[in-house]
Each structure stands twice: as C-alpha cells, then as structure tokens.
C-alpha cells in the first residue's frame, strides 16, 4: 500500500518541501509533486503478513518471522548465518546451532521468557504482565553471578513482583501451582530481587483478593461487596492482628456467604483461596466477636447473626 512519508534525509531535489510517497511493493520513495524516484530499495519496517487461504477476504494471517523482543540484544530481530553444510541439516540442528551461538545471558533470558509465557498462559495473564516480569528478570540477571541459582525460581519471583506492581496480586500458592519450583525457592528469590533492585511494593490487603476469589466461587456481587466491607472493618478495628490478608479475605467471604442465600463451606473456600479450614475457622472466630459492626448497614440478612456457626 502506498503511503505518504516525511523524511529529513531524503528529499526531492526539485520539490524539497513536498511529501514523499512510499511504494511498499517496489520499495521506492517518490516525490508527491513530480513522481521522481528519490529513494530505492526502501526497507519496510511494518508487519509482514501472509495468508494461506484462497479467499481474498481471509482473516487468518500468519506472522512471518518472530515478534520484536526488547529483552534480547538486537531486540530479537538480528540475523544469524548458519554454517554451510549438507541439505540434511534439519530444523532441529539449526535450532541447536542457534542456541549454541547465543550468549549465556541471552540463553538465560530465552529460558526465562519461555517459563514466563507458560505460567502466564496457565494463569490467563495479559502480555503487559509478562513483559514487566521479563524486564525485572533482565535487570536482576545483568552483571550478577547466579551460578547454582534456579532461573525458573527467579522468573517466578519476577512474575510475583509484576503482579504486585500492577495492582493485581496473586498468592505464592497460585504461582507455585503453575511453576516448576517450590514456594520456598520463589520466596527466597523474591526477597533477593526486592533487596537488590531496591523495589518498593505496597502491602497486600484482603480487598486485593476478594473479588477474584468470589468470582471463582461463583458467589453473587452482593456477597462480594459485603465480604469486602467486612474485611476492611475487621482490619480497621484491629480484631484480626497478625492474620494474613488471604486468611482475612477467606474468613470475610465465609461470613458474608453464611448470612446470604448462598452459603459456602470453609472447605470449598479453602480449596479456592489456598488455605486450610482451620486457618479460616480461627480468623472467623476472631471476627465473630464484632460481627454486628462488620456488615454494611444496607446488607439484608438471610440468616440472623446469632444463628451463625462458630464451630
């Protein structure tokens, strides 16, 4: 497709103020006034698409070549010339040769990128989160001796930090479920990365998790709003000291569901939240002492508070 371009280096000698027209098919730049070819073999930096369908209106284009990746040297767009060899040099051999010619830093980044993309796919994460985690990995990995350290653990910790920075935190248990490393390893690398990169993170609150947990449990919006209010009031009144945001969120969801027409057991909530029934029960008992003050005033009880079970 022809398009108008403006260039500071290439101009028509007869009409220097005129815009140039780029002919992407011929690779030429032409003067819009006199059609003089003032530039040849222009490189098209746009996307290259091919359609393998016989229909001209097909909407299934396939990308030719890999996408730009800011993590690697040359942004992943550099060309590597392979060795001359027989025609039997297959794709797998070329892949091995390509990896062998990469620097150790780029190999680590490539492994981390693959690990991040696999975890993101399982957690249904947006591309921005993966890019943020990859950027953190590159910053931490550059110039440091990481011999004997697990790149997968570092990548998982970077993804956890990216969650927190984007205001959409996940739990360590959720991350461990889609990773190949233990929670202990992820937490250790998390502390190292935060310390070395001087990263400041806001503390997690129960409200950061309640909406997602309620959606996973299939609870109505009214229960979600009530659980959020219960958790906030419990933290404000300091009736759950020392309890983690996850425990408070789980107990608040349990309390709100018990007062509604959609009761949910501690076991079901624990399986979704990633905590034990005993932990939910202990936090719930602390909150029950102030239950009348925790619910929003507009909440319509289906079950009176006095009928709540404390067992």
UniProtKB/TrEMBL annotation:
Gene Ontology molecular function, alphabetical: protein-lysine-acetyltransferase activity; RNA polymerase II core promoter sequence-specific DNA binding; RNA polymerase II general transcription initiation factor activity; TBP-class protein binding; zinc ion binding
UniProt KW keywords: Acyltransferase, Chromosome, DNA-binding, Metal-binding, Nucleus, Repeat, Transcription, Transcription regulation, Transferase, Zinc, Zinc-finger
Localization, UniProt: Chromosome; Nucleus
Domain (TFIIB-type) ranges: 8-39
GO cellular component terms, A-Z: chromosome; nucleus; transcription preinitiation complex
Main enzyme class: transferase
Main localisation: nucleus
InterPro entries, sorted: Cyclin-like_dom, Cyclin-like_sf, TFIIB, TFIIB_CS, TFIIB_cyclin, Znf_TFIIB
SUPFAM superfamilies: Cyclin-like, Zinc beta-ribbon
GO biological process, one term: RNA polymerase II core complex assembly
EC identifiers of the protein: 2.3.1.48
Family under the similarity heading: Belongs to the TFIIB family.
Functional summary from the UniProt entry: General transcription factor that plays a role in transcription initiation by RNA polymerase II (Pol II). Involved in the pre-initiation complex (PIC) formation and Pol II recruitment at promoter DNA. Together with the TATA box-bound TBP forms the core initiation complex and provides a bridge between TBP and the Pol II-TFIIF complex. Released from the PIC early following the onset of transcription during the initiation and elongation transition and reassociates with TBP during the next transcription cycle. Associates with chromatin to core promoter-specific regions.
Name of the protein this chain belongs to: Transcription initiation factor IIB
Lineage: Eukaryota, Metazoa, Ecdysozoa, Arthropoda, Crustacea
